[in-house]
Amino acid sequence: MPWFHPTARHALAALALACGPASAAHLAGRVNDADGRPAPGALVVASSETDVRNADGSTRRWIAHSDAAGRFAFDGFPAGRCHVTATADGGRAGLAAGPCRADKDDATLETTIVLQPQPAHVGGHLVRAPKAMASPDDVALFARMPTGEDDTVLVVYGVHVAGDAWAVDLPTGAWMAKAVTPDGESRMAQFALPARQTPVELNMASVRGSHPELTRELHAMVAKDQDVRNRMIASGRFGAKDNAPMARVDRANLARLKQIIRLHGWPTADLVGIDGMGDVWLLAQHATPAFIAEALPHLEAAADRGEIGRASLALTIDRNLVYQHKPQVYGSQGTLKDGHFVLDAVQDPEHLDERRAQVGLGPIADYQALIEKDYRKPTSAN
After folding, report:
1. Which residue range(s) make up the domain with 241?
2. Which end of the chain is more exposed for a tag (fewer CB within 10 A), N or C?
3. What are the C-alpha distances in Å from 73 to residues 84, 160, 188, 277?
4. Where a domain ends, among 203, 225, 260?
């Protein structure tokens, strides 16, 4: 059967930079250039393993500018592991030397960020809603996808959007990106470096759709989808009998999704918002072969509107092909055999990484390694 790994929800959360219950930790530091001189006006972004929101439920973000002495500070930062980055004019970026940790609410943390040349350059533009105006507060945020055993906190960088354009130098790897403006947020985009050649578009769309009750319901359906899959992965057991709880959740979710489509037509961002469209994609991805084939043209149209990412669409294209016993295009589908992720048949395997990069997916070797790490059986099950 095709791979049923949970979606990268931790990446989405990192770009949301959501924070949890109020705490009193104080995070401060200084941004320097490579020669040790203070770097004023750098955009500083902090990300935490602790998810918290403001009292009104809105996303709280940890973004600041370094002052004339290169100093920055965040009050009320949540306890737990965190990363801090900075980006200066010209796209130079830097990461604090190591992850920070606030072990208690009243902790005071000090860190230094050194701006350094990064090996890969990426640029793009923000596609705004009609009549939307540019603001000096517009930023693009970039979350690096996990690459190692200790990636419990994703590294998030930020850069200003000047007019409708942005550019930044980043480390190599697979990235998620979104724009944040006073008018709202763009949908998520995904790209890989250094392979990316064309500009990355960050498309503004409806953050809150016209039917927020549907958005909340879709979130709840996805929560059940992810919970049952995470529990299966944690158990290390993937037999037919172990799949039964997942199959029950998928059947119930599909039945409800079909009801929503009958009542409202195929969902759009105007109906359920950007996050709701991500939920619709995931629920369709875990549906029956017949529904996936039916859903694919609608998901392609959503990708054309900028409401779901090309990387997400690539996974659906692959799954549809595998269900039809045809070679896949992007190498997202496979089977675990003796702890190794073995790809299903792939078209033109010699150019697989090139095709993956075109839709924002990282190298296939990194993808296989990440799946094998996540599916590794717990010690107690050995």
Report:
1. 212-374
2. C
3. 11, 19, 28, 35
4. 203
